[in-house]
Design a protein that fits this description.
Layout lengths: L4 E2 L2 H8 L7 H14 L4 E7 L5 E6 L6 H6 L5 E2 L5 H5 L9 H8 L2 E7 L4 E7 L2 E8 L4 E7 L6 H6 L3 H18 L4 E6 L2 E5 L6 H9 L1 H5 L1 E7 L3 E8 L11 E5 L2 E3 L2 H10 L12 E7 L4 E3 L8 E3 L2 H16 L21 H9 L7 H4 L6 H8 L27 E6 L3 E6 L2 E6 H17 L6 E11 L2 H9 L1 H6 L3 E4 L4 E8 L6 H15 L5 H16 L9 H13 L13 E5 H7 L10
Parallel strand pairs: 2-9, 13-15
Antiparallel strand pairs: 1-4, 2-3, 3-8, 5-6, 5-8, 6-7, 9-10, 11-12, 12-15, 13-14, 16-17, 18-19, 19-20, 20-24, 21-23, 22-23
Helix pairs in contact: 2-7, 7-8, 10-11, 15-19, 15-20, 18-19
Bound molecules: zinc ion (2 copies).
Length: 599
């Protein structure tokens, strides 16, 4: 059966512009997407030297007959698009044909393919067919692209470092695996496997393959819908964050897309739960009627436009906000894995290790210990499985609704409050905790509709540099709207006579900072962001400094205030306020668990 058709010339030209082979990653992308289109359920990508030497893609798809196999490398061949209309309603991943010919033109290609009966073997060097013969009958396709750009040395120079090439291939494969959890993917470079998924359809398992089991356990499952959009997926707890936005993945109708607005809304929802320059790990699957979206037909880009963008962004915002509020987000301290004594106890420890942790005091014996998440971690090594990727189900920790009650027992270095309850021990950073309480109080006051203003007993004169002064003069109204009474006062100076009532603490310092913010933002001044910044700044300034001893009553009051906060888990800069050591963690740290503990 000949399913690849030669496209109409005009259509081919439209596509040609984008069909440029630039990098190893673009070759991998073309080959792997061909494998997906061939209905493969298993795809292996084997690289040598990050693909610069060789890229081999092995799939178990439907394969090609002899005629198609040869035609696949001719320009303007595609199996997917028949007329221009199709081009604008692309439901498939992209379109190829042109690309395979381009790849063949600048490399050495060896193709072995079969529909299950007669196999075909095609060898092409620099775009010229060298050999067409019989291959073996294994159903599927094995395509090897080697010595990329060997005949175009100028392009070869444009290749980035091996590390960069490998990083972009890995990034592409990770995202593809997330969008197709139903396909078994393997990616290796010089025989080192860097990604292996099980094709079980479980997206959380793919997250585990990419980020490891610790991250996978700390993902929160999310879902929601409105009239146009249905969203499912996973977002990381705020304690998990990375330095780049690259781990924020959006998948629309099964296709990974890039959308700045979605990333911004997701990241904003985490505001003050994590440091501003760090980003969460998220995977959002958006299902939508294809007529509501416009996928840019440029085949190398993944841009997308939504016709009802506002309702989508609102939905995403509410899903993410809901997921990270109303739950106990105190990060657990990473307990050290127990090391068991060697040979002497070998038989013994094997038995003991399997046992549940021994609970040490009578009080706790009445209740089941809250350690599910550790048990899962402990059990993984004992899973006997011939296939490494067939593993346990990842159990997402089921958090309690809010920050639990806890009781201070002491203060370390005038900095850390130690608390306890029946679950274990908590360490609270007193500055971060106080900062959070102040911040929420300030935000509330600043958000009130009619802010009162306070007259200064001694007006404050602030001198500025000449250009700052010019900028401030133009934007003075912003400060007046905020209930400041401020006027020009001599050369490059202003005088402040009244300030809004919420402004407390070191007045001069705070006013200077506020003027700096106004000068820095100017026309982009946004009251929300301004309040945010000023509340953060004042809360830090007003919080107890480290190395300050406070009384037990003050500690109790602080902990109780913190627990009343909307987000008690982070200071406004995103640092954690509280760290938790469960009883089990403590037992593990002291090597009490797993042994017959002497009471
Ligand atoms: Zn601070
Ligand atoms: Zn802080």
């Amino acid at each position: 059966m000949q399913s690849i058709k030669i496209m109409d010339e005009i259509l081919a030209n439209k596509i040609a512009a984008g069909e440029v082979v630039e990098r190893c990653a673009s070759v991998v992308k073309e080959l792997v997407e061909n494998s997906i289109d061939a209905g493969s359920t298993e795809i292996k990508v084997e690289l040598k030297e990050a693909g610069t030497k060789e890229i081999k893609v092995i799939d178990n798809g439907k394969g090609m007959g002899k005629e198609d196999a040869v035609l696949a490398f001719s320009r303007h061949a595609t199996s997917k698009i028949n007329d221009e209309d199709d081009l604008y309603h692309l439901a498939t991943l992209g379109f190829r044909g042109e690309a395979l010919a381009s790849i063949a033109a600048v490399s050495k290609v060896d193709l072995k393919t079969s529909e299950g009966e007669i196999g075909t073997h095609v060898v092409i060097n620099g775009g010229k067919i060298k050999e067409v013969g019989q291959g073996d009958a294994r159903k599927g396709t094995i395509i090897t692209v080697s010595e990329l750009f060997y005949n175009t040395p100028a392009r070869l120079k444009h290749m980035k470092s091996l590390y960069t090439e490998l990083a972009s291939i890995t990034d592409y494969m990770n995202k593809l695996a997330l969008s197709r959890p139903d396909i078994r993917f393997t990616l290796s470079n010089n025989d080192n496997i860097s990604l292996q998924t099980d094709g079980s359809g479980n997206q959380l398992k793919v997250i585990k393959s990419i980020h490891g089991s610790d991250v996978a356990r700390k993902m929160i499952e999310v879902s929601g819908e409105n009239d146009d959009y249905r969203i499912t997926g996973y977002i990381s707890k705020p304690e998990i964050h990375r330095s780049s936005r690259n781990n924020m993945v959006t998948i629309v109708n099964g296709r990974v897309v890039r959308n700045i607005d979605i990333n911004r809304v997701v990241n904003d929802a985490y505001h003050s739960y994590k440091p501003d320059n760090r980003y969460p790990i998220t995977v959002l699957n958006i299902e939508v009627d294809p007529s509501v979206i416009d996928v840019n037909i440029h085949p190398t880009k993944m841009d997308i436009k939504f016709s009802k963008k506002d309702t989508l962004l609102e939905l995403i915002k509410s899903i993410v906000t809901d997921a990270i509020s109303h739950r106990n987000l105190i990060p657990k301290a990473d307990a050290v894995e127990p090391e068991f004594p060697k040979p002497k106890f070998e038989n013994l420890t094997l038995e003991l290790e399997r046992e549940k942790p021994i609970i040490t005091t009578d009080f706790y014996e009445a209740k089941a210990p809250v350690v599910e998440d550790n048990i899962v971690k402990e059990e993984i090594p004992y899973e006997v499985s011939s296939e490494p990727e067939v593993e346990d189900e990842i159990i997402l920790t089921d958090d309690e609704e809010t920050m639990p009650e806890m009781y201070p027992v002491g203060l370390v270095h005038g900095t850390y409050i130690i608390c306890q309850n029946e679950k274990g021990m908590y360490i609270i950073d007193q500055h971060a905790a106080k900062e959070r309480c102040n911040y929420e109080k300030f935000k509330k006051e600043m958000g009130k509709p009619n802010v009162a203003s306070t007259a200064l007993l001694f007006p404050i004169i602030i001198e500025l540099s000449n250009n700052d002064f010019i900028i401030l003069k133009e934007n003075m109204q912003i400060l007046r709207d905020l209930k400041f009474e401020i006027e020009e006062f001599g050369i490059n100076s202003v005088i402040v006579k009244q300030h809004p009532a919420w402004l407390t603490g070191d007045t001069e310092y705070v006013i200077r900072k506020i003027i700096e913010i106004v000068i820095a933002t100017r026309k982009d001044f946004d009251i929300e962001k301004f309040n945010e910044k000023v509340a953060t700044m004042m809360s830090c300034k007003k919080a107890i400094k480290a190395n300050t001893n406070i009384t037990m009553e003050e500690m109790e009051a602080l902990v109780s205030d913190l627990r009343k906060c909307k987000n008690p888990y982070n200071c406004p800069h995103g640092r954690p306020t509280t760290i938790f050591y469960s009883n089990y963690d403590l037992e593990k740290l002291f090597k009490r668990s797993g042994f017959d503990v002497i009471k």
